[in-house]
Design goal:
Distance between the termini of chain B: 70 Å
Structural class of chain B: alpha/beta
Number of strands of chain B: 7
CATH superfamily of the largest domain in chain A: Thiamin diphosphate (ThDP)-binding fold, Pyr/PP domains
Distance between the termini of chain A: 44 Å
Strand content of chain B: 5-15%
Strand content of chain A: 15-25%
Number of domains of chain B: 2
Oligomer: heterodimer
Number of helices of chain B: 14
Number of strands of chain A: 14
Order of helices and strands of chain B: HHEHHHHEHEEEHHEHEHHHH
Radius of gyration of chain A: 19 Å
CATH architecture of the largest domain in chain A: 3-Layer(aba) Sandwich
CATH class of the largest domain in chain B: Alpha Beta
Largest interface: A-B, 48 and 44 residues
Number of helices of chain A: 12
Helix content of chain A: 25-40%
Chain lengths: 327, 361
């Protein structure tokens, strides 16, 4: 085991993927000479060359559009979109082309494209740099959507995403980029926790908390506080948002009878909304309280001096736990 | 409004069927080769007629006529090598023909039994792209792959004058120029984006945009199959030899409707149409062949027979295209199983079965 930041873990995952498969290449804005604005691709152009670590013109749509053509020629492009709020110029290529080409060609054309997307707030950034656009992609058939919450998962999941023949929207929780954690660099990807599987990060018996990405750490902190108050929270890290691992979620809610879903993204028509609907249907007879969501508000992401009021925090999570237990 | 209609383009065969020489694009071509091109043009014209009739008879939901643009496409398509790869919009039936895709195969999309229709790798041509300009960056990416593979193949992007206003097409020029990629942008200026005239897309000749990207551009008479062939051949040769991307603007005219759902009388005059009818892509080749003694009666009769046979195959084959099993819609959404798709598929299977049992009881 090695202690790494999430940035270093992602960098190691990219190196491992570039080593494993000569068809893997990275493309994006400022990823080569600069090493990426978050330094996730630091040093890679030096070791793998400009043909495999490509600084592109500043045009998100054609970063993804060109990746489609490269994929059709047999390559496995890993595209970096610099910030969450910059993905929308590429939205058409992602939704119309990347997500659909396999089915439109009856499975003849594979789209093994990974779109890395630093997402979420909490770093005091200017507008368009703190968004959580996951629901748009979760809503789109043909895409997989993943969000690691720890350096260890970032290392494993990015390699799995690159090895997958399906296109993956890979959401990196940018405010956890500098969190440190133990990473097993010798882990066998094929035998690690599979793609699409959630993980019960902390076992508990009173309320299930479902979260992902940047909110895992916040939810674990909330569980610590709750434990001090005699309440046992079970914290589930979803890891994958498309598909969502409902069996793991349902098994937990069957035991706790209560569910709180936490994410930064707006609550309206969100991952939390989907989870609430499905869990209500499958766990109806076991539940003691309705599913409660703790989410961003139905406003554009606010100026960063207000973001502490927008983002779910320990207090808002505990408030939701209280409301759930009050039923 | 002569900006887009001027004759300052490469032309090797006049509308009257007279050969012209061009210093940069010489074309030595035999009678047999011209006859082969004429056969392509005739088959495309017939295909267009048959498919339009099938739509009128309710056998197709929609069709996108090629009429008027046959020469631009056949010339370009016949200049390609098997290893080259074409990305096209939905009107490129002539390119599909040259890539060996059976006309009947194109009917599946318009009949609504598939959203694609063929394996792109069997023909080195992607499936039709419906969203305007979306496929142009794909050609650039494919060309970036060719560069990494170190072969001398070329990726071609076929698009129209309307597409030139799309951001993706602009970005594609930027990428291709930046990476010096082996891609040929083949623009068919057919003068209309549904109803909007090309003057609304550009105040000057579209070929002039190439210079702004630092790539060579050539303007060619798109109704002249010989010029389209010669210019495309020359461009492909230059690109293969490492010359980087190029743009060809083929000046042509959409004689038909945008699609069979369209009413072009609302936006263009008969006068315009009659003018372009005098520049027909087939007529001029026929005149050349007659002048040269290449078009004997038996050749013309054999073409007629072949076109009739294709028409019959198309009519019978289209009517025989039945919708696939509903559950096939779940196939290939993902490479690996996805629980939501698995669940939805199981639901529909149960639902259909229950409905069927209900019908039987």
């Amino acid at each position: 085991m090695t202690e790494l930041t999430m940035v270093a873990a992602l960098n190691a995952a990219l190196r491992a993927s570039l080593d494993r498969d000569s068809k893997v290449l990275l493309m994006g804005e400022d990823i080569a000479i600069l090493g990426g604005v978050f330094r996730v691709t630091d040093g890679l152009v030096k070791d793998y060359g400009e043909q495999r670590v490509v600084d592109t013109p500043l045009a998100e749509s054609t970063i993804i559009g060109a990746a489609v053509g490269l994929a059709m020629r047999g390559y496995r492009p890993v595209c970096e979109i610099q910030f969450d709020g910059f993905v929308f110029p590429a939205f058409d290529q992602i939704v119309t082309q990347v997500a659909k080409l396999r089915v439109r060609t009856d499975g003849q054309v594979a789209m093994p494209i990974v779109i890395r997307l630093p997402f979420g707030g909490g770093i005091g950034a200017v507008e368009h740099h703190s968004e959580s656009p996951e629901a748009y992609f979760v809503h789109t058939p043909g895409l997989r959507v993943m969000a690691p919450a720890t350096p260890a998962d970032a290392f494993v999941m990015l390699q799995q995403a690159i090895a997958s023949d399906d296109p993956v929207i890979f959401l990196e929780p940018k405010r956890r980029y500098w969190d440190r954690g133990e990473v097993d660099l010798a882990v066998d990807i094929a035998h690690a926790t599979p793609m699409g599987r959630a993980r019960v990060t902390r076992s508990g018996s009173d309320v299930t908390i479902a979260c992902y990405g940047p909110m895992l750490r916040t939810c674990l902190e909330a569980a610590d506080v709750a434990a001090g108050e005699g309440r046992s929270l079970e914290v589930i890290d979803l890891r994958s948002l498309s598909p969502i691992d409902f069996p793991t979620l349902v098994a937990s809610v069957e035991r706790t009878s209560r569910l709180v879903v936490v994410h930064e993204a707006q609550g309206m028509a969100s991952v939390g909304a989907e989870i609430a609907a499905v869990v209500a249907e499958r766990c109806f007879w076991s539940m003691e309280a309705p599913v409660i969501r703790v989410a961003g508000f139905h406003t554009p992401y606010p100026p960063n001096r207000l973001e502490q009021h927008y983002l779910p925090d320990v207090e808002r999570i505990l408030d939701a736990v209280d409301r759930s237990l009050a039923y | 409004m002569h900006t887009h209609g001027g004759n300052d383009f490469v032309q090797l065969l006049t509308p009257e069927g007279e050969r012209r020489d061009h210093p940069d694009y010489p074309l030595d071509i035999t009678g047999d080769e011209v006859r082969a091109l004429y056969r392509d043009l005739v088959m495309m014209r017939r295909f267009d007629l048959e498919a339009t009739a099938l739509q009128r008879h309710g056998e197709l939901g929609l069709f996108t006529p090629i009429i008027g643009q046959e020469a631009a496409q056949i010339g370009a398509g016949r200049a390609m090598r098997p290893g080259d790869f074409a990305y096209t919009s939905y009107r490129e039936h002539g390119i599909a023909w040259c890539r060996g895709i059976e006309p009947l195969t194109l009917m599946g999309l318009f009949r609504g039994v598939t959203n694609g229709g063929w394996n792109p790798y069997e023909h080195n041509m992607s499936i039709y792209s419906i969203v305007i300009g979306d496929h142009v960056p794909h050609a650039v990416g494919y060309a970036m792959g060719i560069q990494r593979d170190g072969t001398d193949d070329v990726a071609l992007a076929f698009f129209g004058d309307g597409a030139t206003s799309q951001g993706d097409v602009h970005e594609s020029f930027v990428f291709a120029a930046a990476f010096h990629s082996p891609v040929l942008f083949f623009l068919q200026n057919n003068h209309f984006a549904i109803s909007v005239p090309v003057e609304t897309q550009s105040r000057q000749q579209l070929v002039k945009r190439a210079e702004g990207y630092g790539i060579p551009g050539i303007r060619v008479d798109g109704n002249d199959v010989l010029a389209s062939l010669a210019v495309t051949r020359a461009a492909l040769k230059r690109i293969r030899e490492g010359g980087g991307p190029m743009l060809i603007e083929a000046v042509t005219y959409r004689m038909g409707s945008h699609t069979t759902s369209d009413d072009p009388t609302r936006y263009r005059s008969n006068e315009h149409l009659e003018h372009w009818a005098t520049r027909d892509p087939l007529e001029r080749v026929l005149r050349l062949m007659e002048r040269e003694g290449w078009a004997d009666d038996s050749f013309i009769a054999s073409l007629d027979d072949e076109a009739n046979a294709m028409g019959a195959t198309l009519r019978d084959g289209t009517r025989a295209l039945t919708p696939p099993d509903p559950l096939t819609m779940f196939d290939h959404v993902y490479a690996e199983p996805h629980q939501q798709v698995t669940d939805d598929r199981a639901f529909l299977a149960r639902y259909l079965q229950a409905a069927q049992s209900g019908d039987e009881s």
